[in-house]
Amino acid sequence: MKEMALSVPIEKKIFLIRGLKVMFDKDLAELYGVKPKRLKEQVKRNKRRFPADFMFQLTVQEFNFMVSQNATPPKKYFGGHLPYVFTEHGAVMLASVLNTKRAVEVSIFVVRAFSKLKEILITHKEFFDKLERLEKKFEKHDSEIQNIFRAIRQLMPLQRNPKRVIGFRP
């Protein structure tokens, strides 16, 4: 199967909303080669196949936040309605209800994109966890070194008797 020629990589069309990695309905419609209206019709006809962890509609606040962060175009791009977003499982289910050859082929790329993003996030999490452990380790060492200096200072005599200088004084 040949690679899909997309203007924007699929990974760039995946967003983190409500702690879930999701894709917008319009982007999936474009990928699957159907009109957004047809996509929404199929979702409405098959509502039982799309529980809340597969698909949900953005709230006004969520959508405005996405627009303000330049992550998405304005509401006009989505036909003036708040968009629906689909998780990885929702995108696969969507391909099954659309039941077109292109939808099945593209769903494979979508799943791979979600998986690739998951790997990247896991790698970054491991890196940040290691960095945090290292910072804590050095913080502990810093305090231990300060304690050593305090102990040394306590062992030193409080007053030093200045020694008499030998030689001529001007």
Quick one: CATH class of the domain at 10-124? Alpha Beta
Q: How do the strands of the widest beta sheet line up side by side? A: 1-2-4-3
CATH fold-level name of the domain at 10-124: Mlu1-box Binding Protein, DNA-binding Domain
Taking the sheet with the most strands, its summary is: 4 strands, antiparallel
Overall CATH architecture of the domain at 10-124: Roll
What overall geometry do the principal axes of the alpha carbons give? rod-shaped
Please provide a written account of the structure.
It is a single chain. The chain is an alpha+beta fold and 170 residues long. The chain has a domain at 10-124: Mlu1-box Binding Protein, DNA-binding Domain (Roll), CATH 3.10.260. It is built from 5 helices and 4 strands, in the order E-E-H-H-E-H-E-H-H. It has helices at residues 25-32, 36-45, 60-68, 88-98, 101-155, and strands spanning 14-17, 20-24, 55-57, 84-86. It has a 4-stranded antiparallel β-sheet with strand order 1-2-4-3. A hairpin with a 2-residue loop joins strand 1 (14-17) and strand 2 (20-24). It is rod-shaped, with a radius of gyration of 30 Å. The chain starts with 13 loop residues before the first strand and ends in a 15-residue tail after the last helix.
